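help with this record:
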Amino acid sequence: MSRLTDLLAKAKAKDSQLGADLEREFKLLSSRLPFGLNFERHSPEAVELPLRPVRKGDKVRVLPERGSVKKGDQRLWQVKAIHKATKVADLELLDTAEPEMQSVPLADLIVVAEFRDTIYPGMVSTGKVTRGGDKPFHTVINGENYHVLKALTYTHRGKVDAIYIDPPYNSGAKDWKYNNDYVEGDDLYRHSKWLAMMERRLLVAKELLNPVNSVLIVTIDEKEYLRLGLLLEQVFPEARTQMVSSQINPAAVARAGAFGRSDEYIYFVKFGSAGPRRTELSREWVSSKGRTHNVVVRWDLLRRSGKKGSSRKDSPGCFYPIYVDPVGPKIVKVGEALPTGISEPENLEGAFAVLPIRKDGSEGRWQWTPSTLRDGLKEGRVRISGAIDKGFTVSILKPGEFKKILNGEVDVVGYGVDGSVIVEGQGDSDLVRAIPSTQWRITSHDATQYGTRLLSDAFLPVRDFPYPKSLYAVEDALRFFLVDNSQAIVLDFFSGSGTTAHAVMRLNHQDGGRRQCISVTNNEVAADEQKALREQGLRPGDTEWEKHGICDYITKPRVAAAITGKTPAGEPIKGDYKFTDEFPMADGFEENAEFFTLTYEAKSAVNHNLAYARIAPMLWLRAGAQGRRIDKLPSEGWAVADTYGLLTEVDQATPFISAVSQGSLRIAYIVTDDDRRFQAIAKRLPDGIEPVRLYESYLSNFSFANGE
């Protein structure tokens, strides 16, 4: 070992950076466990920053030509000089034995931040929605989640009550990237890459959680649940971890050579006194003997949903008319599949023809063939609802649900006008105050019905997002830990479509709470859309490209729609919230939300007037994200908002202290490089107000060294 230490010292003397890198890797190897989860940490990740201007000293990649679908040059270059007149940068290749230089137009470069780099984060507001009066704001932050987490260590260290994340499942289906490369299913290192990615983020998240009483909730499927469990045990040895099995697809997803998948797993990592609280549960959750069971059959839509396999061309035999007598309504005839090229069915006197037409007007398909549907009608497995002016909806009982009737799990108590079965217990509202078991088989947790369809049919029509969680499943998972905490702070740093924020608003509506959610996501464009955009000559950073990114296209619009009760097109949202809290979705929520984008500031640009505007949102976030924000430096030398005050001229301490004494402030930010003057002013502040020092070069407070 001493020999290795000597060699490391020689390496440091010759190349300090190389020596430091070797020493870091040596420490990682020497700290490995003899038993437990050992994995490669890999090179620290690097993230592309398409909206960041190129500056001298930056690390960059050279983009492929416009119109090209090739991956492009993935090597890292450093900007040695910028020629403003010609808008060209001189580049030097990094990490190479032989020096290599080239000059490239600025428009063909994209800035890259490595996780070992020191960053100076800022934030800019990109819009807000206000319907909640003086309630604190929910926030959506567009940025690389690791960097946002680092920034949140300044604003929310030890303050977060619950973290709910739905990370990529590492399925190999282009669901996540490592160093700008999609991790494919045949990648020999895909498990260790996934673990390295998760570990870095969990270690920072650990700093944010309230050690006295908080919970980390992580969903996962069978591909990584074993490794995730071990990782959670190693990162959080002080916590108590429990895993729940949750049914998300009663119909199950068929897999070649394997059992159909119908459930996933939820890890609950509990800190301090945290634990599930007894809450009012339906009979579906808890039986008289405390066992979980499902007493209600689930009706599924006959029209196939989703993006793949749901169009007419995918199954021409499942595009046929269903003739409905509006009086009832009831189905009077099931037609045959229409020939290719024919979209208009024959008329049937006194009946209305229903076709599987999707919300966007395109031709979809039914899940069942005509003969299967006719058999289902005879068995009472088909239900029709609606009217001519509103449209008709056909629902079915799939074999698994109908089996509950055949097996005697539920009793048929009658038949509807349409011939569909009516079962005992349907809509039973009897409640039991209890804590459920670790097996969740809950109707409202169906991800297809209350995730995919809720999003695409109600809140964001014609906008697709793959595999969103059931709104009610996320709501229930959080409720067990937050039912007694109406002021809770919730964080989701894999926020995707924004389901967690939506669920927190639901909880607030039920008990008048003031919980707030911080949602973090990037603006990555879906893999299947990138090729088409590149063929159009678009690249990351272009307006037309960025508007298709997940944050701008899905997350922000969904949060706004949930609050306003209107779709992005301005139409009232159709349908009602169900189960625990039933009311029209068009009513919206009395909540506030603001949207931000993480910025990367240049060290050379850190000065009094330039930096403050970018860190102003972080001061506001630390003070509770409530009320007015001080966005500009006060000319008087001090200013007071609803929850915090800012003193920029220490000579104005007396009027500042007088002003903060009049309100109910939480924090007083004091700008000074003089520690003695800071301490003197801090002692004069009223009890209950936290003094926080800011340096005159503001971003000095917000620099973070990243990496292992």
User: Anything to note?
Assistant: The two ends are 22 Å apart (CA to CA). The chain has five domains: 1-31, 46-119, 121-296+428-595, 304-423, 625-705. The chain has a mean pLDDT of 89. DSSP finds 16 helices and 38 strands in the chain.
